[in-house]
Design goal:
Elements lengths: L1 H4 L1 H8 L5 E4 L3 H6 L5 E4 L1 H8 L3 E2 L7 E2 L10 H8 L7 H9 L18 H8 L7 E4 L11 H13 L3 E4 L12 E2 L4 H8 L2
Parallel strand pairs: 1-2, 3-4, 5-6, 6-7
Amino acid sequence: MITLSLKDELEYKLNSKIIFILKNTHEIIAKMYDIRDYILLNTIEMKEKIEGMLSLDPKKGSIYAAHPCLHPELAEFFEPIKSHTSTRKFLSWICNFFGLEISHKVKSPLFYPSITDELMDKLLCIGPLNKIVLISPEAISMPALPENFWIRLVKDIRCRDLIPVSNVIDVNNSIKGSLYVKLDINEALRLGLY
């Protein structure tokens, strides 16, 4: 989401138009920023067709991975974030990754998708919407935070008389003490933005 929010700054820096190549699951985020120039690929297509063609530097006409985990040459730079040992704020770190001035403010989305009636029906089976706290303990491109972090967080949420809900791909990764509700990426984003 942060990368898409920096599109204007990146285009200015590179003096070139950027066309994002996104996983299908990220399309809703592009729409939130009214970004219309993008190509959608599923995860398998992304791995098979794109990852072998990546450029080390962002330049006109090249495919550049906008995620440090796809740049082995940046392993040392990425390690503190990946291992959760960095004391640096993520925004300044990602701006540094893109070579942008840290003074840039993150552009807010132009629209936020609302909760649909169908999603509302699903959530009301859990409890009042203002009591639901969505947690996402799984990680895809980085190591997950330790399970004991999530267990403590769930206990804290419950102590506040709130309802923790695990947003996971694999139901076995739900955190003990939280509820599991099957949400697709669009539903999870809509709930998370509520």
